[in-house]
């Protein structure tokens, strides 16, 4: 159901970009499932009150997270290193009491909690997708299969006691019922505890033209200003906002009870930067919408020209955002015959929306194409280093964020 009312403050939401009818980004299909594929209008608007950028239409969470969920957070070396560092930070800075306890919302396959468990610290992952939850359990991680909300938080508190840290990575922006999350935090967090979450940053998307970060799972697109307003609305305080490199540029937010911690200098700096750059202003967002359409046209024109010249093109990586760009741009098998991805659960299936076949990485070199369209651009350095033989043989990469270019 579409809405023009902010899910946090009930302010009016003004739409600024429409990416058309789209599938669920991780709904990888078998050929016989194509005719029944779910679609919805993927449009984004900004609240005129608190500034929160959000989807106009939210896909029910049961459609997005289920036993067939295809995303595994441990699939990237950089992800494993990043979340191990997160865990070490919590162990050193927050989980230092006599019997500390950490809860992770959306723990996926346990990529962060594995380090916590190895340290012998009490923990619980809350993960609604049964298949990835089972992978985490096989690693010795304690997991509750559920969607996190106030009822879930009360259950966790009753069974395990209060949490010193509640953490979420690329998860909190997925939860439409954010009001229930904060009511759960009121119950679950210790008086001095913190709610820490890392999410795609609105400035990265708008200034960096990362429009493919917009898809069904990402209900909210946070800025420091909108998170500050959201925390205050629900009786908490934003005390820190740190830029991190994940997914091309995210922000790690730290929220505490009012007065429990002194807000950091870097939070003040980021808020000032957002104001000076006019990040949340309607004119900035409208210009972003126009540029998205331009990049679509540039990318399609390039692909068509290359194919007309007899060049071969293969897609590289099938992250959720690949469905946004292929569906929005109308990229079909005439332009890109298939996509290679290392996730076994995606191989042999079709990319949502565009229905490009997903094949294993071995097919990328059998034989190498002339060009590779890099959908997993946030892992560009890692991928290009891995595929040096492709470059050595004359292969070229195509990127479309922040602009269409051949590398």
Tell me what the structure shows:
- One of its GO terms (biological process) is methylation.
- This is Class I SAM-dependent methyltransferase.
- One of its GO terms (molecular function) is methyltransferase activity.
- It comes from Amycolatopsis heterodermiae.
- Its EC number is 2.1.1.-.
- This protein is of the alpha/beta class.
- The strands form three sheets. A seven-stranded mixed sheet has the order 6-5-4-7-8-11-10.
- Strand 4, helix 3 and strand 5 (122-126) form a beta-alpha-beta unit.
- The protein folds into two domains: 73-261, Rossmann fold (3-Layer(aba) Sandwich), CATH 3.40.50; 283-406, Rossmann fold.
- Helix 5 packs parallel to helix 6 (178-188).
- The protein is built from 13 helices and 17 strands.
- It has helices at 61-64, 77-93, 113-118, 130-138, 150-160, 178-188, 202-207, 224-233, 265-276, 282-308, 320-329, 380-386, 388-392, and strands at residues 13-22, 40-47, 53-55, 101-105, 122-126, 143-144, 163-169, 189-200, 220-221, 237-244, 250-256, 313-316, 339-340, 358-359, 371-374, 396-399, 405-406.
- The protein is globular.
- The mean pLDDT is 94.
User: How would you describe the shape?
Assistant: globular
CATH topology of the largest domain: Rossmann fold
Q: List unreliable stretches of 5+ residues.
A: none
Based on CA atoms alone, the radius of gyration comes out at: 21 Å
Structural class: alpha/beta
Strand order of the largest sheet: 6-5-4-7-8-11-10
CATH class (first level) name of the largest domain = Alpha Beta
What does the largest sheet look like? 7 strands, mixed
The number of strands is 17
**How many structural domains?**
2
Strand content: 15-25%
Proportion in helices: 25-40%
**CATH second-level architecture of the largest domain:** 3-Layer(aba) Sandwich
Alpha plus pi helix count: 13
The overall pLDDT average reads 94
| CATH superfamily label of the largest domain | Vaccinia Virus protein VP39
Order of helices and strands: EEEHHEHEHEHEHEHEHEEHHEHEEEHHEE
């Amino acid at each position: 159901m579409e809405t023009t009312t902010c899910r946090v403050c009930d302010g009016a939401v003004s739409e600024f970009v429409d990416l058309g009818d789209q599938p669920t980004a991780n709904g990888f299909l078998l050929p016989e499932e194509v005719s029944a594929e779910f679609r919805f209008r993927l449009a984004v608007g900004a609240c005129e009150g608190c500034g929160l950028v959000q989807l106009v239409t939210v896909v029910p969470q049961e459609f997005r997270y289920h036993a067939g969920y295809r995303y595994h957070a441990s699939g990237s070396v950089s992800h494993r290193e990043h979340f191990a560092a997160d865990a070490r930070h919590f162990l050193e800075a927050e989980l230092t009491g006599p019997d500390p306890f950490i809860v992770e919302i959306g723990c996926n396959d346990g990529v962060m909690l594995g380090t916590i468990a190895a340290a012998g610290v009490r923990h619980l992952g809350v993960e609604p997708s049964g298949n990835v939850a089972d992978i985490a359990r096989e690693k010795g991680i304690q997991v509750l299969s559920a969607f996190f909300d106030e009822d879930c938080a009360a259950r966790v508190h009753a069974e395990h006691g209060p949490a010193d840290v509640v953490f979420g990575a690329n998860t909190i922006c997925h939860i439409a019922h954010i009001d229930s999350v904060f009511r759960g935090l009121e119950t679950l967090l210790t008086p001095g505890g913190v709610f820490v979450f890392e999410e795609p940053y609105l400035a990265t998307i708008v200034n960096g033209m990362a429009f493919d970060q917009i898809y069904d799972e990402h209900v909210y697109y946070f800025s420091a200003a909108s998170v500050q307003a959201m925390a205050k609305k629900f009786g908490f305080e934003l005390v820190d906002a740190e830029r991190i490199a994940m997914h091309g540029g995210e922000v790690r937010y730290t929220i505490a009870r009012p007065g429990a911690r002194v807000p950091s200098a870097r939070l003040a700096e980021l808020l000032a930067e957002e104001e000076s750059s006019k990040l949340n202003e309607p004119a900035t967002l409208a210009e972003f919408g126009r540029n998205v359409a331009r990049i679509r046209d540039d990318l399609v024109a390039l692909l068509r020209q290359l194919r007309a010249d007899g060049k071969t093109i293969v897609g590289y990586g099938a992250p959720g955002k690949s469905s946004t760009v292929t569906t929005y741009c109308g990229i079909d098998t005439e332009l890109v015959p298939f996509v290679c991805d290392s996730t076994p659960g995606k191989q042999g299936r079709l990319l949502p929306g565009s229905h490009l076949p997903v094949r294993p990485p071995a097919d990328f070199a059998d034989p190498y194409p002339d060009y590779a369209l890099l959908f997993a651009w946030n892992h560009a350095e890692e991928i290009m280093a891995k595929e040096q033989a492709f470059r050595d043989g004359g292969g070229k990469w195509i990127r479309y964020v922040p602009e269409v270019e051949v590398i």
